[in-house]
Every structure is written in structure tokens, then in C-alpha cells.
Write a structure and sequence with these properties.
alpha/beta; 7 helices; 200 residues; seven-stranded mixed sheet
């Protein structure tokens, strides 16, 4: 499948640990995110090295996601019991603490295959997917295993999508919340570049 942008996000049902610590046997993506934006992110394994830094980074910014109406869902091939044990391990002992978002157990590897992020050996690459209110993937990025992702960049993409949805304008290179957008027309491009090209 490769590129999912512009396509419906693959739905799934699997066991999970919710952000409140509850373990559920059936967590269904489409039901959990209906009518909302969502970020689904994959990581290789619990109790590893780069992964806890990423999961803690998401948790430290969870209010930023929540304030934008965005559901955050982490996925790895570990079981819900491993996820739960990792949540119950203190940060200073290599754990992630009680992160406030859902961790899904992809023990059959079906989800990472559906999103085409399974690495050789079976773990998932560091894939991140931004899904809009209609269930369409609007942004994706996939990092190799040694390369931790930038969670702030996902927030920037969420803001860019919201800006486009609200104003109909497009977001030029390096756009950040509060910046001007661009009218998607030859005149709009010319106007934007005449005013902003030096700063690009």
C-alpha cells in the first residue's frame, strides 16, 4: 500500500490499554475516533530505547492534542499486558508511566501490515498518521528504527489541516499557527511570494 494519504485509514479492532489504565479486549478505531481527528502512531516495542522518549513526548503534549480535538493512539506488536506493565514502570526505570492515551496490542501484526509499516523482523517502523474527521489520512511520516520522531511537527500538521479546513487556503513551506496562508491560485502564489519569499 505504501502511501495512505488521501485514502481511508484502515480500521481495526484489537485489545488495548486505555488512557485511564483500563484494559479492554476490543478497541475499535472507527468507533473511538468517529467525527474527530486522530493521530495513530506505531513504534517497535515496549521496554526498548528510543520508544519511551517518543511515548513520553506524546504524553507531555497530550493536552495540546486534546485541546485541538485530536485522539492519540499508539500501536506496537506487544500485548496489552506488556503495555500495562510498561505504563506501570516508572520513567526513571525505563518505563513510560501512566500515559494518558490508548496503547493498542497488535500481536497478530495485522495493523502494522495494514498501514504498511512492518519492518523486517516483524516490529513496526516509527510511522505516524494524521486522520481527519471523515477517516481520511491527511499526513503520514515513517522513520527508520534509530530515528525518533518530532511530536511537535505532528502538532504543526494538525494546525495546518485545521487552518486549511477553516479558511480554504493552503499552507506554504514552514507554515506555523498564526502565519498567513496562501490562496491556491496563480495570483495567490504571486502575492504570497512577493511578500514572503525572502523568509522561506
Amino acid at each position: 500500500m505504501g502511501v495512505l494519504v488521501g485514502k481511508s485509514a484502515p480500521d481495526f479492532t484489537a485489545a488495548a490499554v486505555l488512557g485511564n489504565g483500563e484494559i479492554v479486549d476490543e478497541y475499535t478505531l472507527s468507533a473511538a475516533i468517529k467525527g474527530k481527528k486522530a493521530v495513530v502512531f506505531f513504534y517497535p516495542l515496549d521496554f526498548t530505547f528510543v520508544c519511551p522518549s517518543e511515548l513520553i513526548a506524546f504524553d507531555h503534549r497530550i493536552e495540546e492534542f486534546t485541546s485541538r480535538g485530536v485522539e492519540v493512539i499508539g500501536v506496537s506488536i506487544d500485548s496489552q499486558f506488556s503495555h500495562n506493565a510498561w505504563r506501570n514502570t516508572p520513567v526513571n526505570e525505563g518505563g513510560i508511566g501512566p500515559v494518558k492515551y490508548t496503547l493498542v496490542a497488535d500481536v497478530k501484526h495485522e495493523i502494522c501490515r495494514a498501514y504498511d509499516v512492518e519492518a523486517e523482523g516483524g516490529v513496526a517502523f516509527r510511522g505516524s498518521f494524521l486522520i481527519d474527521e471523515d477517516g481520511l489520512v491527511r499526513h503520514q511520516v515513517v522513520n527508520d528504527l534509530p530515528l525518533g520522531r518530532n511530536v511537535d511537527e505532528m502538532l504543526r500538521m494538525i494546525d495546518a489541516l485545521a487552518f486549511h479546513q477553516e479558511h480554504g487556503e493552503v499552507c506554504p513551506a514552514g507554515w506555523n499557527k498564526g502565519d498567513k496562508g496562501m490562496n491556491a491560485s496563480p495570483d495567490g502564489v504571486a502575492k504570497y511570494l512577493s511578500e514572503n519569499a525572502e523568509g522561506l
